[in-house]
Every structure is written in structure tokens, then in C-alpha cells.
């Protein structure tokens, strides 16, 4: 039986390892990889550097059909931390530290479980999830991996999640006609005004999307995260650049929706636009993939949770034809925050779940 002390011993080392992304300065030479490999006695190890901070470490024991995926990278720490984010603090039934919830706590649970079990298991550790590029997972899936199922560790309160939103982001540039802002044509010729008018139409369309529902998720959240245009108040803006994104419902095509939004802009106003990131929902095909994942959860005896609004790399496994679930310790509300924490009870519960999955069929 894996105990709490074993999990926290491993988590202290993982939290102390600086794997912030950005800046994504991660390589196989980092001591944390030697540490992880050192915990995996009896495993076949395949570690690959895919460049630009994208590392994949696959550890396999026996002949498992399911691969467990953990991303080692974290978001950057913020000014809101009152303690050292790289020093695990355990108090009030919580483990606090950068990545403790998202998702080094889950990795610590799995490493502790593998030390106490002898069942077949495959562990894939990657380092670029927080960059939103998925290069490491994509490279892994392009190889002859031989797995039928994937369980991706993101915070789900230890419940198996079979559906979540997709994500698509884009960059757009609006053109204007430069001049003095005292001219009445400023109302129509400013790139900023043109961008804002288009944004208003997009918001109206997004409000109409609130009527859409799929798998317990409502609407399609739309966000303009950045607007950058013009020089000063007395000059008509000649150029305005926006960064935007939306979260698709399971089965929706992000490219189709983004294209629909840009069709709202007059051609002479829109200088250029491009999709900067496009990731499918889970399942990638709501009709073909949902049943397999929910059946997998039932077969494994996992408590199933509702669809979630965040995105995970489980979608990439699903798109590659694997039955994919999201299952991890902690609450997503504690991820990406100052004083990030995970409840000790969640770590204990996840370790128990992992133990059951690893020893399944080997008792």
C-alpha cells in the first residue's frame, strides 16, 4: 500500500525542479529526468528530445495496453506567491508548491505506486503541454507505440472524464487609413474602430452560441485576449492586431467557427488573419469516440465525472484513435494560481486508483 509519506517525498523533488514553461528551458540533461528514471526500476526507458524544450520519456514495464500521460512542465510562478514556489509546503491537509496540482502531484503518485507494485504499466512524461503545442505527444503518437488506451493526468478530482472542450486561437490584423484624428473620417477609417466593430459582431454571435449544448457543456466561450493598435490619441490608427480564441464543444470544428467569425469582417478592413493553435475536443469525433472512452472507464471501474471546460492532450490521443480519459488529483480551480495546492486526500485517493489499475489482472 502506497503511503502519503512516499508520495510527498517524491513530490518535494519534483516541485523543486524548475520546469516552468515559458521559458521552456528544459532538456534531458536536467537532473529531474535522472531522478524520474531512478524511480523506475525494471522499466524499459525511451527518452527523446524533440527540440525547443519538448521532451518525451516513455517508461514501460510488461505489456500494457494503456499509457498514462503526465506533463512535467508548469506555468510560471506569479507575484502572488507568499512562499517559495519551488519548496513544497505541507500544512492544513494540503501540499502547496508550483505544479503540485497541475500535475506533479499525480506523477508523484504514479512513481510511488510503481515502487510498490509489479503490474504492467506504461508512463509517458512530456514537457510542452503548458506551451499548447503538443509536440512531444504528437511525436510519440507518430511512432509505433502499440497502445489502445490513454489516461491523461489533469486535475479532475480523481474522476474519469471522457469529454472536454477543444481550443482554437487566432491572430488578426485590421487595416486603417492614417491621418489626423480631428477628421470626421476617424469614425470609419481607424483600424482600431474597425476591429472593435468586428469584435462586437463576434460577441453577438458568441451570445447566440450560448444556446448550443453538447455533453453537458453549454455555449462556446469566445475571448479577445489582446488588442494592440495605433500610436497616440490624435492619430488615426493605421493598424490594429488582435489575439483571440474560443473553446469548442465536443465534435465542433474550431477552424470552421473561426472562419465564420472572420467572415463578419469586411474584406477591405481585414488585412490578414491566421489560426495560431487548433486542438480538437475530447473526443475528437463526438459520435465515434465518446462511447469507447466511457466504456473504458466502466471496464476499469472508475468513477466517471462530467465533461470539463478546459483542454487537455487527451484530445490528441483521441484524434490518433486511442480511447482517452482524463483522470488526475486535485481541482482545476487550484491550477495556474499563486499558492497552487492539492489536497492530501486527493493524492491518497489517486494513488489507490493507480494501484488498482496497475495491479489489475496481476493479482
Chart the SSEs and their pairings.
Blueprint: H1 4-16, H2 31-38, E1 44-49, E2 55-61, E3 66-71, E4 89-91, E5 94-96, H3 100-116, E6 121-126, H4 135-141, E7 149-152, E8 166-175, E9 179-180, H5 186-189, H6 191-208, E10 213-214, E11 217-218, E12 222-229, E13 235-236, E14 239-248, H7 254-262, E15 270-279, H8 286-299, H9 314-319, E16 323-326, E17 341-343, H10 344-359
Parallel strand pairs: 3-6, 3-7, 7-16
Antiparallel strand pairs: 1-2, 2-6, 4-5, 5-17, 8-14, 8-15, 9-13, 10-11, 12-14
Helix pairs in contact: 1-3, 3-10
Task: Describe the structure concisely.
The protein is α+β, with helices and mostly antiparallel strands and 363 residues long.
Question: If you had to describe this structure to a student in words, what would you say it looks like?
Answer:
With 363 residues, the protein is an alpha+beta fold. It is 31% helix and 24% strand. The protein is built from ten helices and 17 strands. It has helices at residues 4-16, 31-38, 100-116, 135-141, 186-189, 191-208, 254-262, 286-299, 314-319, 344-359; strands spanning 44-49, 55-61, 66-71, 89-91, 94-96, 121-126, 149-152, 166-175, 179-180, 213-214, 217-218, 222-229, 235-236, 239-248, 270-279, 323-326, 341-343. The strands form five sheets. Strands 1-2-6-3-7-16 form a six-stranded mixed sheet, with helices on both faces. A hairpin with a 2-residue loop joins strand 4 (89-91) and strand 5. Helix 1 (4-16) packs across helix 3 and helix 3 (100-116) packs across helix 10. The longest helix has 18 residues, at 191-208. The model has no long low-confidence stretch (mean pLDDT 94).
Amino acid at each position: 500500500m502506497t503511503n502519503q509519506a512516499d508520495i510527498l517525498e517524491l513530490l518535494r523533488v519534483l516541485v523543486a525542479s524548475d520546469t516552468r514553461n515559458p521559458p521552456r528551458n528544459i532538456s534531458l540533461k536536467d537532473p529531474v529526468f535522472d531522478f524520474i528514471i531512478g524511480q523506475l526500476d525494471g522499466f524499459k526507458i525511451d527518452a527523446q528530445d524533440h527540440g525547443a524544450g519538448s521532451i518525451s520519456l516513455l517508461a514501460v514495464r510488461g505489456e500494457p495496453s494503456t499509457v498514462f500521460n503526465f506533463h512535467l512542465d508548469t506555468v510560471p510562478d506569479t507575484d502572488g506567491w507568499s512562499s517559495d514556489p519551488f519548496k513544497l509546503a505541507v500544512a492544513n491537509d494540503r501540499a502547496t508548491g508550483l505544479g503540485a496540482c497541475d500535475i506533479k502531484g499525480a506523477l508523484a503518485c504514479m512513481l510511488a505506486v510503481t515502487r510498490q507494485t509489479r503490474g504492467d504499466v506504461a508512463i509517458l512524461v512530456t514537457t510542452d503541454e503548458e506551451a499548447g503545442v503538443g509536440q512531444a505527444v504528437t511525436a510519440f503518437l507518430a511512432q509505433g507505440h502499440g497502445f489502445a488506451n490513454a489516461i491523461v493526468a489533469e486535475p479532475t478530482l480523481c474522476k474519469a472524464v471522457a469529454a472536454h472542450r477543444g481550443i482554437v486561437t487566432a491572430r488578426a490584423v485590421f487595416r486603417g487609413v492614417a491621418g489626423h484624428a480631428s477628421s470626421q473620417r476617424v469614425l470609419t477609417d481607424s483600424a482600431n474602430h474597425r476591429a472593435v466593430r468586428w469584435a462586437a459582431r463576434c460577441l453577438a454571435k458568441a451570445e447566440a452560441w450560448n444556446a448550443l449544448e453538447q455533453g453537458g457543456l453549454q455555449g462556446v466561450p469566445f475571448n479577445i485576449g489582446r488588442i494592440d493598435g495605433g500610436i497616440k490619441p490624435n492619430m488615426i490608427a493605421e493598424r490594429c492586431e488582435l489575439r483571440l480564441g474560443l473553446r469548442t464543444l465536443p465534435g465542433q470544428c474550431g477552424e470552421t467557427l473561426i472562419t465564420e467569425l472572420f467572415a463578419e469582417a469586411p474584406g477591405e478592413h481585414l488585412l490578414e488573419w491566421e489560426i495560431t493553435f487548433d486542438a480538437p475536443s475530447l473526443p475528437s469525433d463526438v459520435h465515434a469516440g465518446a462511447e469507447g472512452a466511457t466504456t473504458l472507464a466502466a471496464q476499469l471501474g472508475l468513477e466517471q465525472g462530467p465533461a470539463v471546460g478546459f483542454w487537455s492532450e487527451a484530445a490528441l490521443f483521441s484524434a490518433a484513435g486511442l480511447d482517452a480519459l482524463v483522470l488526475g488529483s486535485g481541482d482545476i480551480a487550484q491550477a495556474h494560481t499563486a499558492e497552487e495546492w492539492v489536497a492530501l486526500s486527493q493524492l491518497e485517493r489517486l494513488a489507490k486508483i493507480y494501484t488498482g489499475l496497475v495491479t489489475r489482472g496481476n493479482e
